[in-house]
Design the sequence.
């Protein structure tokens, strides 16, 4: 592949990611209004699933080929990027408000999932049975989020919460909701295609520059699979729906650990190397770093800059450990 073709693919990938992110946010916000729930509910479920499709695809292909270390590295690296780079850049655009429910329920669940991953790292493997358990946890989390969505907005009773899933499903059957679901689907497809094209172009450029494929996997591919989350979160921040940006990151991290790692372990039991265990502790550390920011119900621009700086420190540590620089 020539350098002109590679540069063209990078530019096209960025354009598709930007356009796909705009469509995804547009459809998510409209669908949330029709279902009468917070946009964050859509971000935690549909948007998080859609933007995590690249991680799922890359990890499944790696697991089928028996390369579970790549699959696990993709999950851990993407989660670190989500919390540090994506939240950080979104906060630089606009301060990010945090809903109280995110502190009470969503962050603890994300942190708990991260602790599970660290536990697997300590034991050096993830079995098929544990993979099934992770997937069941994800299903239970999404069921609970949808079930309790209505009273979270309307201040309803427990009886009202039982009808939350029914109300959202009924709203999804209206013509307006079907159109917005179409926008969501198109946005997810464009984001996934854009991420793949951008990664292919970037990998080709790196090879032309004679950068090793191992470094490509540790940096470009990990960033590439997180680009849909980045595009969606930045689009949400620009459009004044900052709550959706935080929810997308939390939901994507939960989906990556419980969904992607769970499916990968079901396909092929995962062996966790000692080096990967260190990366898992970095992931856990970034999860902890988010708590005081979310506790104040606001992620400021200064805190966003701190998160980006911490990610650069992690990247330097990673390259130093790998290349000995």
Sequence:
């Amino acid at each position: 592949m020539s350098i002109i073709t590679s540069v063209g693919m990078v530019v096209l990938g960025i354009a598709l990611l930007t356009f796909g992110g705009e469509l995804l946010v547009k459809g998510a916000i409209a669908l949330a209004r029709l279902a009468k729930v917070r946009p964050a509910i859509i971000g935690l479920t549909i948007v998080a699933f859609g933007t995590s499709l690249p991680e799922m695809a890359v990890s499944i292909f790696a697991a089928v080929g028996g390369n579970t270390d790549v699959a696990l590295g993709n999950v851990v690296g993407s989660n670190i990027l989500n919390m540090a780079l994506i939240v950080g850049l979104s906060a630089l655009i606009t301060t990010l408000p945090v809903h109280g429910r995110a502190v009470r329920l969503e962050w603890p669940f994300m942190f708990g999932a991260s602790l599970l991953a660290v536990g697997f790292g300590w034991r050096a493997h993830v079995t098929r049975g544990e993979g099934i358990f992770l997937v069941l946890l994800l299903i239970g989390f999404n069921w609970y989020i949808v079930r309790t969505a209505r009273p979270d907005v309307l201040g309803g009773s427990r009886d009202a919460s039982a009808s939350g899933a029914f109300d959202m499903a009924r709203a999804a059957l209206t013509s307006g909701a079907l159109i917005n679901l179409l926008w969501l689907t198109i946005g997810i497809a464009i984001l996934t295609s854009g991420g793949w094209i951008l990664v292919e172009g970037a990998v080709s450029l790196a090879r032309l520059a004679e950068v090793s494929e191992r470094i490509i996997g540790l940096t470009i591919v990990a960033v590439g699979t997180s680009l849909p989350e980045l595009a969606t979160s930045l689009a949400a921040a620009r459009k004044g729906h900052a709550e959706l940006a935080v929810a997308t990151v939390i939901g994507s991290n939960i989906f990556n650990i419980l969904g992607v790692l769970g499916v990968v372990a079901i396909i092929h039991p995962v062996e966790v190397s000692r080096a990967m265990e260190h990366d898992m502790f970095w992931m856990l550390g970034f999860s902890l770093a988010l708590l005081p920011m979310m506790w104040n119900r606001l992620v400021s621009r200064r805190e966003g800059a701190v998160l980006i700086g911490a990610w650069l420190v992690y990247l330097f540590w990673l390259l130093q450990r790998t290349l000995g620089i």
About this structure: The longest helix spans residues 175-208. The beta strands are 96-97, 125-126, 270-271, 298-299.
